Amino acid sequence: MFELYLKLGFGHLLDINAYDHLLFIIALTISYRPQEWRKLLILVTAFTIGHSVTLALAVLDLIQFSPIVIEWLIPITILLTALFNFYRPYSDEEPASENRFLSESGKYMSALFFGLIHGMGFSNFLRSTLMPGEEGQLGWQLLAFNLGIEAGQLVIVFFIISINFIVFNLLNTNRKWWIRSVSLGIIGFTGWILWGLWQG
Amino acid sequence: MILLLQFLSLWLAHDIHLTKAQVEFNQADQAVQVSMHIFLDDLETVIKDETGFVDKMHLGTEKEVAVGDSLLVAYLSNHFTVTVNEQPLVLSFLGKENSEDLLAVWCYFEFPVPKGTIAQVTLTNDVLTELYDDQQNIVSLKGPDRKMDYLLFKKGETTSQFTY
Fold first, then answer.
1. Whose CA is closest to A8, among A139, A179, A127, A90?
2. Could you tell me the residue range of the domain that residue B87 belongs to?
3. Which value does ipTM take for this structure?
4. A1, B18: Cβ pair inside 8 Å?
5. Which of A151-160, B1-10, B113-122 is predicted least confidently?
6. Mutation site, B8, B99, B131, B136, interface A, largest A CB count within 10 A
7. Distance from the CA of B50 to the CA of which of A115, B59, B121, B164 falls in 20 to 30 A?
8. B33 touching A (Cβ < 8 Å)
């Protein structure tokens, strides 16, 4: 049972057909240089705390929300995160404006907050897998599923760090250009997700 | 009210490509009993794809076509198979009922098992895997040894074997 839910969590994050969470993590992490992997892990941890909290609360029926609203909010979180990269493409440079929201701590707070929303999205999937009679196992299912998601996250982060290593450190590509191009691509894909939702 | 729920639920139909089933070797009834949860819209699509049935089947509603159940049974027989000691078992359909949210149906069926010791079991579950690349089919299995196994079937991994 534990193994099944580990697999379900891992597969849910890395699912090419359900790529919204994937896009979010890429948008969140693309601006970091490989050398900044520690800052990156702290950022991803903020996202993790956010989604773990609402995933648990939702699955335990302690919070309720409209699944449709979450469906629409998740692409919004991706858009905002990708747009953030346009205002502050360099993770080690202070933004031009004094706006606190655009600072590094602002980014952590948004990762935490957006995590809350993604967690609710995850709970929709997790709930759909539950079967009658297994209520006593919910704690384990939740734990395993969450761990699977974290494992999937780590894979994506490792992938991004590796890509950025090639792009920044080896190929010496212009950082602003790379971060903005990827962010633009993400905005494009997100537009497509929103279009699909609109079409119903 | 039902109409509103159906409309809402169609709109809510998040693309979760999943079936879940509880499978149990019931010693007393000498049968492998299955309860399987499948989304209605997926069933409509896949049965039409496979049989060429043109009209809407309206499965799970008052408008359900007369051949609805037989089409469903045919599909299930082809895509959920149980073999015991290398002998394929025959599916016997017991009925179905709508899920609480009206998006899916619980299908109840069983496979009578011939008497004797069960040494080997093969389960194949490729329900909907041809329709969606990311289809996942969860099965909780209570084997003849009364132990629980939790299985995940997907495209390319549609068979599980057990020896007892």
1. A127
2. 2-7+22-163
3. 0.86
4. no
5. B1-10
6. B136
7. B121
8. no
